[in-house]
Amino acid sequence: MLLEGIALGVFIGLILGTIGAGGAILAVPGLIAVMGLSTIAATTSSLVIVGSAAVAGFIPRLKTKTVDVRLGLTFSGLGVLGTFVGTQLVKVVPETVQIILFATLMLGAAIAMWRGPVAESDIPVKSQWPVVFVVASAIGVLTGLLGVGGGFLIVPALVLILKVPTKTAAGTSLVAIASTSSFAFLMRFEYWGEIPVLPITAFTLAAITASFLSAPIAGKLNARTLQKGFAIFVAIAAIFVLVGRNF
Predict the structure, then answer these.
(1) pLDDT band for position 206 (50/70/90)?
(2) pTM of the model
(3) What is the rounded CA–CA span in Å between residue 134 and residue 157?
(4) I want to staple 9 with a disulfide (CB 3.0 to 4.6 A). Which of 45, 101, 203, 245 is the partner?
């Protein structure tokens, strides 16, 4: 289990550091299928892994100015109440429903990113605060319920709704993922005992290292390539989740 955790951590860190999302999309099914954790243990553990890797991913982006810390924290702050609600829903929503909802949202986000326009301008974007409030709150609910950092929804929302440049959206999502995941993890204190400490620690350290080292790669990618790559990645992950659970 230890070696599998390290291998998965490296892969997840590379994806998260490059496209600014996808950590939980890989972590949750990986923890379930490869490491044999229950859905609750996997979603709780993923918050530690993804949140830590997100911090390592956005720090290098501060130098290249491809991150909007203020907008990222705003998304996270507005999502706090939603995260609290989502965490409470874990107790009443069946695991099967959680996974199906997870995969459905992933496919929707993939289609939207594939078909949507690419924003490449570095001109500051005037945020649509009523829309930010609604979207961030909804993403918070999903973070609490599904144990995801929200990046696979935050990136499309920033790019397609708020018209944030694709590269900046990737960096900004990492800020929101880091803070929102931390809050969701604290809210799940009753499930901490289900986390296998040694394997998850190794998993997390591997993800942090890979995320930090791969973050500069995103700055060298074409915006269209980054957006298309995000869409393809999320679609494949959605199919993997559904097939892996044998629904």
Answers:
(1) very high
(2) 0.73
(3) 11
(4) 203
